[in-house]
Design goal:
This protein is mainly α. The protein has a three-stranded antiparallel sheet with strand order 1-2-3, with helices on one face. A hairpin with a 2-residue loop joins strand 2 and strand 3. Helix content is about 70%, strand content about 5%. The longest helix is centred in the N-terminal third of the chain and has 30 residues.
Length: about 180
Amino acid sequence: GESFEEINRNYSAKQFRQKASAINKAINETKTKLILAINQKAQQQKWTRSEILDCVLMVTYASYVAMIDFRNSIWAYDYMAFSRRIGELWEPFCKLCFEYSIKELELFIPPLFSDVKKLMTNEIETYIDKLTIKETEKAELRKYYEKVWNMVTSGEIQLELDLHFKQEGKYYNID
């Protein structure tokens, strides 16, 4: 509320985009400070992982509700803008359950899809070269292998947009 009053003093009604951006920034800064305070208190008081996650989720949820409400009072959402905004907020909210996991897990960054494709292509090329078949048959195999890659890459897989973690020796990918 205090931030909202200050933003209203600093921007005119016509500067609704700047006001909306400023309120989002103010709410995010407050949320970040609250989560830092939660982590500090949790460490001091030896909270369980579940208690930490509950608090982080509640602060994040409350900040999202405040952000949507204040932004709407500055610059009313139309149905598509509201839908997009909810979508933007949903993914990071869901990821909190992994960042503040109750169970032991390790987040990791996967290899780039292009690197995986290059490695697999080199392996299959080496394998095809060693086959004791005619060169025309090798060329035909390469052609079919390329067709498969063309289908796989037509949607441009972007692994870096997914969530990756390792738990109990198993690797997981969440799209």
